[in-house]
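User: We ran a pulldown and think these components assemble together. Before we commit to crystallization trials, I'd like a predicted model of the whole complex to look at. Sequences follow.
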Amino acid sequence: MTEQSPLWEVFVRARRGLSHTHVGSLHAPDAELALRNARDLYTRRQEGVSIWVVPASAITASSPDEKDAFFDPAADKVYRHPTFYEVPDGVAHL
Amino acid sequence: MRGPFDFALRLGDDALIAAQRLAEWSTRAPEMEEDIALANIALDQLGAARLLLTYAGELEGAGRDEDALAYLRDDREFRNCLLVELPNGDFAVTMAKLLFLSAYQLPLYTALSGCADERLAAIGAKARKESAYHLDHASLWVRRLGDGTAESHRRMQAAVDEIWPYSHEVFTPDPAAPVDPATLRADFDATVTGVLDEATLTLPRNAWVPSGGREGVHTEHLSYLLAEMQVLHRAHPGAKW
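Assistant: Here's a predicted model for the assembly, 335 residues in total across the polymer chains.
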């Protein structure tokens, strides 16, 4: 193990009904070991009931350079938020 | 001495010495992830050791608690098998030791969980899940190293050859014990043979069978381990965190 093992991103589901959330990353030579390592690193205090590991290299991420083009256009489009509806009387859970 | 006290003491000492040896890997494992995995396994073993030694102290009825048993006995009074006190060696040796230990502890704790003694049954029920993970971890590495590169195969085979003779001691028959260790042998053999086959490793022929740990006759390695483990408690009796 003189060469560093590949990097894996770890997602943990805290309990049934919630979705998997990214909790961090780790090094492991393969998927099976990545899962074991994730169990030891990220769920030792009962943080989860399910783990996903994904090779970091398999993730395509947006670039900070593209931030303006990606996200700014949404800034002035308030009509995309569902705030223009009248909430009918008597609807408790909306 | 025989009987329930001796039985609990043997199991507790196995777990305690295994924990101390595994803890030696802390900050020295090949990778940070493995460092934490080995420390977790060491803590599992320590947890089992505490329960077993506490119970052994109660069975003895001489007022010795877990600390008195762990810190205030000399090597000749320890009843652990030789397997757990052997030095860690390289990573392959550590994994061979963990494979043989967990392949024995898993059927042992499973059988204990159904035994008549309620305390031992509860300890077995808790510890067997931990043992299942230890076995999983060791098997995974033995398979990878055995079926890996030419060098990793060579070193893993050398480790198996070196450690295998020490795996027999724990199965010495004891029909009066809550679980007769001899009855666990078939399960152990099936597990180990399966893992070694997958790992393209060969089981050495059974020849030399070192033993003596159960009678307190240990290798020279144990007293050094105990010196390090016990020095604080002996220098500062009753020291607490």
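Chain A has two helices and three strands. That may be worth checking against your pulldown data before setting up trials.

User: Thanks, that helps.
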